[in-house]
Amino acid sequence: MKPTSSLRTAARLAILPMVGTALVLGASVRAQDASGSLNLPSNPQFFAKEDPNNRRAKVIINGEVITGTDVDQRVALIVNASGNKIGDEELQRLKLQVLRNLMDETLQIQEAKVQDVAIDQAEVDQTYARVASQNFGQDTKAMDAYLNRIGSSPASLKRQIRGELSWQRLLRRNVQPFVNVSDEEVRDVIKRMQESKGTEEFRVGEIFLSATEENKAAVFANAQKIVEQLKQGGSFQGYARQFSEASTAAVGGDLGWIRAAQLPAELATPLQQMSAGQLVGPIETRGGFSILLAIDKRQVLTADPRDALLSLKQISISFPKGTTAAQASAKAKAFSDAMQAARGCGTVDPIAAGLGAEVVTNDQMKARDLPAQLQNMVLALTLGETTPPFGSIEDGVRVLMLCGRDDPKSSVEPNFEQVQTSIEDERVNKRAQTYLRDLRRDAIIDYN
C-alpha cells in the first residue's frame, strides 16, 4: 500500500534494536556459524548490569541529537489518542518504542538530504494546516494550543510531517521507478476479483509481533498487554504504528480490503466470524503473533449504500471553561433548534455566525468512513436535514447537515489502474523496509 501522509499520532514503526554496552564473560560472540545463528553461550554472565528501561538523556544518531523532550512530546500524542489510559509500565515501554521511531525518522530525513531530496518549510506548514483543518476542524493557532495543552508541540508534529514527506519522496524517486507490475499480473487479480463477486471481504487492521522459539513466551505476554490497552480504549492505529513489525505499520496496521482466503488459515478462520469493530488476538502465526481488528466488511464488487459519496457540513460550538452540565445542555438545545430551523446548506453559514459556531465542509466523504454510530443516521437524512447534536462539554457539540449524496453504482467493476497501483504499493513497501534496515545497519549511534 502507498506510504501514507496521515499524521494523527506518531511516526511510522520500525524496530531498531537498542545498543547495549554490557560485556559478556565466558564466551565471545563470534560472527555466525554455518547455520546462520549466532554462537552465544547458554548461560552468560554479565560484567556490567544495564537496565533497558533506563532511558538516557539523549541519543546521537549520525551526529544528530534526539532528546528526552523529543520523546515525551511524541508520546503525549499517543497517550492523548488513547484517552490517557496508559499505565506507568506501559508508558515506559511506549517511550522506548517512540525513541526507536524517532531514530528511524532521523535516518530517513538524513538520507533524504544525502540524496538531495528537499522538503521546503512551506510544504511542511501547508501539510500542518491541512491536518489542523481535517483532523481537528481548527485553524493552526487552535491546533498549536491543543498540542501544547496535551504536552506535545507544533515543532514535534512538524518534524514528523517532514520525516514522512521526506521518506515518501525518497521512495518515489529511488524505489518506485524500479518496481514493475505486468499487465498480465493485473488482469489475473481482476479475474480473481470477478470470480469472487458477492463473497465477503474485510477491511482489516493487524499488529504483528515477530517471535522465535526462545522469546515466544515474552512476545505473547507483550501482545496480551497491547490487547488489554486496546480494549481499554487505546488507539489501534497508534499502537500499530509503534509496535507492529509488518510493513503496514506506516499506515496504522491497515491491510486494506482483503478476502479471508488471502490470509493464513489461523487468521482466516477467526476473521470470518468477526463483526465490524471486533478485536481478536494475540493469534499465533508463522513467525510470531497477530492482533486483528475487523474495521469493516462488504461483498466483493457489490454496491453498498455506505459507499455513497456525501457532501456534508459540520457545524460545531464550544463551551467556555467552567461550563456546567446544565448550562451545556441548554446551549446545546438552543443550538439544535437553530440547526433544525435552517432551510438547507445555503442558510447554514449566516445562522452559524449568529451562534458563534464554526462550519467545516467536506464534499468527498464516503458514508462508510464516518463513525459507525453515525453511518446509518446520516444515510437516513434527506438534503438539508441534520443529525441530532453530539459531543461533550470538553470537545464541544456538533451536528452534521447533508448537502448532497451520490449513490454507488449497482456493480463497481475493478479499475485496472487502481489494481496496478495497489500491487505496486505493496512491493514498494517491502523494498522500503529493506532500505530502512540498511540505514539502521550503517548508522553511528551514541547514547549519552
UniProtKB/TrEMBL annotation:
<dbReference type="Pfam" id="PF00639">
    <property type="entry name" value="Rotamase"/>
</dbReference>
<dbReference type="Pfam" id="PF13624">
    <property type="entry name" value="SurA_N_3"/>
</dbReference>
<feature type="domain" description="PpiC">
    <location>
        <begin position="199"/>
        <end position="296"/>
    </location>
</feature>
<protein>
    <recommendedName>
        <fullName>Parvulin-like PPIase</fullName>
    </recommendedName>
</protein>
<keyword id="KW-0732">Signal</keyword>
<keyword id="KW-0413">Isomerase</keyword>
<dbReference type="InterPro" id="IPR027304">
    <property type="entry name" value="Trigger_fact/SurA_dom_sf"/>
</dbReference>
<feature type="signal peptide">
    <location>
        <begin position="1"/>
        <end position="31"/>
    </location>
</feature>
<dbReference type="InterPro" id="IPR050280">
    <property type="entry name" value="OMP_Chaperone_SurA"/>
</dbReference>
<dbReference type="InterPro" id="IPR046357">
    <property type="entry name" value="PPIase_dom_sf"/>
</dbReference>
<dbReference type="InterPro" id="IPR000297">
    <property type="entry name" value="PPIase_PpiC"/>
</dbReference>
<dbReference type="GO" id="GO:0003755">
    <property type="term" value="F:peptidyl-prolyl cis-trans isomerase activity"/>
</dbReference>
<keyword id="KW-0697">Rotamase</keyword>
